[in-house]
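Sample entry (200 residues):
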Amino acid sequence: MRKKTILIPILLVLFSFCWLAGPVASAATRNESRSGGQPTIDVARLEIRIHDLINQERKNAGLPDLAWNQTLQQIARDYSQDMATRNFFSHTDPEGRNFVQRYRRAGFKCAIRKGFFFSRSTILGGENIAYNHLSSAIVRRNGQTMTSEDAEEQFAAAVVRQWMTSPGHRRNILTRHYRREGIGVAIGKNGKVLITQNFC
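Predicted structure, serialized as tokens:
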């Protein structure tokens, strides 16, 4: 039985006219057909595939593509790895730090001006997170348990499909003011696939 992808968006409004929005990410799978065990995931390739599908959704909505940003990608991957290593799933780490603090720690500045005069605000970025499991790429063919030949595409499409049917995630993905993104994936020892998507 295929496990359902679970996604959590974050949307924070600060009264100091700073707007923080955040839902998730991306991952990659190597297409290896082998019997038994867990499928192998090519993290970098899956990250790029999710990025491509995100830009397709933006194009469908008449929005410009998000540029791939290496710093945001590293922030996202580091956070996915932290969630995998310490076995938690949240927009705030066990020390209570959110994505804005992670941006600052990495030396990344995001401050998008929006509006005029009294309605002026500053967007500090956004984050989406999600998780899946390697077992979702396992299929049975001719009585044998094998890794799906298109596992990478299945992972990417499933994550983006879930985000686009979730109001918070969809809002982040289709935010007109965002211009850059980074997607980072990590695999936990238990086969859990953690995905983080960061915007600016």
